[in-house]
Amino acid sequence: MKHVVIVGGGFAGLNAAKALGNRKNIRVTLVDRLNHHLFQPLLYQVAMAALSPAEIAAPIRHILAKYRNITVLQDEVVDVDRKHRAVIATECTLHYDYLILACGVKHTYFGHEEWEEYAPGLKTIEQATEIRRRVLNAFEAAERSRDPARQRRHLTFVIVGGGPTGVELAGAIGEMSHHTLTKDFRNINPRLARIILIEAGPRILPSFSGKMAAKAAEDLKKLGVQIRTSSPVTGIDSEGVLINQERLEAGAILWAAGVQAAPLGQKLGAEADAMGRIVVEGDLSLKNHPEIFVAGDQAFFAHSHPSPLPCLAPVALQQGRFIARNILAETAGRRRRQFHYLDKGQLAAIGRSKAIIELGRLRLEGFWAWVAWLVIHIYYLISFENKLFVTLHWAWSFFSFRRGARLIIGKEWRFYRGSK
Amino acid sequence: MKHVVIVGGGFAGLNAAKALGNRKNIRVTLVDRLNHHLFQPLLYQVAMAALSPAEIAAPIRHILAKYRNITVLQDEVVDVDRKHRAVIATECTLHYDYLILACGVKHTYFGHEEWEEYAPGLKTIEQATEIRRRVLNAFEAAERSRDPARQRRHLTFVIVGGGPTGVELAGAIGEMSHHTLTKDFRNINPRLARIILIEAGPRILPSFSGKMAAKAAEDLKKLGVQIRTSSPVTGIDSEGVLINQERLEAGAILWAAGVQAAPLGQKLGAEADAMGRIVVEGDLSLKNHPEIFVAGDQAFFAHSHPSPLPCLAPVALQQGRFIARNILAETAGRRRRQFHYLDKGQLAAIGRSKAIIELGRLRLEGFWAWVAWLVIHIYYLISFENKLFVTLHWAWSFFSFRRGARLIIGKEWRFYRGSK
To answer: Which of A266, B12, B18, B219 is a good FRET partner for B365, with 20 to 30 A between their CA atoms?
Structure first.
């Protein structure tokens, strides 16, 4: 009986576990510090009040309940003891025959971690709720204010980072101010909201072709989004953003500018790229440690493809499944194979009814790209229940222009703490 | 043009606003410190992971958007200046011709406010999320532990207070441990969870008849709930509850034992009952202040009924509407009327398919009472959208035995705060 320990319940870890589920002579323990798998491609919709957290997340132990050889533990892994083949978590130590590390990435502020307080990133449900709170609170503060200059500041939204996440956030705020909120306020006109998308590089969506990026920029402008390229951010505080010497006062600042591999990877002492992603062999194992695999965003894979594989859900999903198959092959006495990524392309939604899709030479934009975007996301959603409810919510929002989850939820649950 | 200021967007405030919406010569400002109206009767289902917050709450300004004479402000009212007829909020002062106070109640620990940290109450979405986090975390901690004594402690759930909320919470935990979670764990058997409902008085559900309360107690026992009556709690700490001299170690402690009127009422200098509810006249106005009304849970109304009106949604709803009609009558030169409550009865759900209902001499229990409970709650839900999604979620849960919102969502959204 071989024991496979998987660290991380994202796309890579979850799909590795599923592929090892109910297999003979294999026992699996999946450890994650959270109790849920999160469908990250739709997280911006939670931040933008279109979906509820429970619609894009599900308890990992529930997803894997039918596999009797899998144990799920909610715990935080703090170290890996390669010599004794053990994973050390805060409350337990797990000995492994095979280890799969799939801890993903978190956002980084490039040495300015103090900016986080003023400009939340978007990687967890907690952060999505925080972003929702800030954006909706900015509209509320503008409605309360009678001073046009303060109203203008409250209604300025700055998104730092012109990748797909930044574009999707900017498009959603544009959608919200132009359609969803138009009738709800008395002192302000939400259409006057300024949405500014800041990109340090020469253009937005650098991973897409220039033509598709230009098309996206055009769609964003129609939603009232101003795009500022070649504009590296040099400072962020509670009131605004500094771009070179120019200051932008803002009601909410969102961070979508950079990611960095989870810190656990550093404990392996292995080679890593600038983002901290661990360099892996052609079979996704660690050099000199064939029993340790790294998958998903945490892995730097630069074999047999023109460029290193990007941090995308399909890469993680395929890698997780591939590692499981290699482990099954090896325990059955067969040889390991080398990983090849089947390119699933890339896509980004822009507001309520536009998207761009690129897959090799196939390029699609506008309404039908958006329909394809919908179908693809529904298809890959975690469970039948989530598929059903997200479909219904989207159908409802599309026809009513409404957003079902416009709740400002506070951080503090206690009544009496302040009164002591 | 008369200006009506409403403080509080609960059942009373919202229904007063609606009844004044788009009426001539009336201008309304509704102030609430939260941006959403909350359908409190279903809040325990959010705490118990059956529904998402957005399904039982909606932005107040969105509900009232079609009434062009209503302005909604998210702000906290800190004082009432009766002499100058002004409401003082943190960011603005509002002058009124009529004032409607409908701030509701919060839970109270009878002088032991330090217990709150260990035993959250259930009045807000934040508290519901906190309770959900604690209950689900207790199951996770039990699964991680290898020590039977600690597992037993983690799997002990204590609910303090045998009113409808305590009964509904206990029933829902029973349901969860007996049905929802049974296949998801490997080290523990969720069915072994101990659920202890503690009541200081001689029986649970004192507002119901003895026969119905006994029936509810029977149904609770079938779900594994132990009921301990005549058991006043004398201490609560992070590890458990003290009842007289006996100690109960617990994995999660929930508070459903008492409520107290919102503190703003004290600023009126008016007569109040032991719970801090403001004593009102027959037309729900304040003595010597016919321009100030108090409605809902915050009001103590003891006219023309055998006993003072209880803190129930139908009371608040009827009172809010009634006050609006009196204001409209008075501004049209007609006389005010006296409030009469049309009794809508009371009801409580027990687990997934049982309920009790009492309305005068009509008594209903078991499955059909539960069906009636469903229909009534759906009927009164805030919007068509909420009705639709709650109905679908309930249908889904009923047939699948699942709970759609089993997410443990943390309090902290920052990654980098600890690393500074």
So the answer is: B12
A76 is catalytic: no
> Which of B66, B186, B254, B259 should we substitute to test contact with A (largest number of A Cβ atoms within 10 Å)?
B186
Name the one residue in this structure whose structure tokens are 């109640």: B105
The CA-based angle A179-A196-A206, given to 5 degrees, is: 110
User: Chain B contacts of A392, Cβ < 8 Å?
Assistant: 388-389, 392
Q: Does B408 sit within 8 Å of A385, measured CB to CB?
A: no
Query: What pLDDT, in 10s, does the model give residues A373-412?
Result: 999 999 999 888 888 888 888 888 888 777 777 888 877 7
pLDDT band of A417, cuts 50, 70, 90: low
Averaged confidence pLDDT in chain B: 93
- A57 to B407: CB separation less than 8 angstroms, yes or no: yes
Per the model's pLDDT, the better-predicted residue between A202 and A394 turns out to be A202
Cβ of A229: how many Cβ atoms within 10 Å?
14
The alpha-carbon gap from A78 to the nearest alpha carbon of chain B, in Å, equals: 15
- Residue in chain A closest to B46 (alpha carbons) equals A54
For B416, nearest residue in chain A (alpha carbons): A113
User: How many contacts does A have with B, using Cβ atoms within 8 A?
Assistant: 181
Mention every residue, 6+ apart, whose C-beta is less than 8 A from residue B109.
A416, B115, B116, B119, B255, B257, B258
Within 8 A of A408 by CB-CB distance, chain B residues are 34-36, 74
pLDDT of residue B112: 95
Backbone angles phi, psi at A72, to 5 degrees: -110, 130
Subunit contact B52:A53, Cβ cutoff 8 A: yes
Cβ–Cβ gap A183/B411 under 8 Å? no
Active site residues of B: 168
Query: B218: distance to nearest CA of chain A, Å?
Result: 30
Query: Tell me: the pLDDT tens digits for B317-370?
Result: 999 999 999 999 999 999 999 999 999 999 999 988 899 999 988 999 999 999
Cβ pair B392:A392 closer than 8 A: yes
Amino acid in the structure at residue A161: G
Residue B106, helix vs strand vs coil: strand
CA angle A78, A81, A82 (to 5 degrees): 130
Q: How many CB atoms lie within 10 A of CB A202?
A: 9
Structure confidence by residue, pLDDT tens digits, A224-240: 999 999 999 999 999 99
- What's the token pair of residue B131? 């309770």
Q: What is the mean pLDDT of chain A?
A: 93
The pair of structure tokens assigned to A90 is: 């805060």
pLDDT, mean of residues A349-371: 93
Whether B419 shows a pLDDT value over 50: the answer reads no
Residue A420 has pLDDT above 60, yes or no: no
Distance between CA atoms of residues A391 and A386, nearest Å: 8
Record: contact B35-A75, CB cut-off 8 A? no
The b/e string for A353-382 (b: 16+ C-beta within 10 A; e otherwise) is ebbbbbeeeebbbeeebbeebbebbeebbb
Nearest-CB residue to A419 (from B58, B113, B185): B113
ipTM: 0.90
CA dihedral of A220, A225, A229, A231, whole degrees rounded to 10: -160
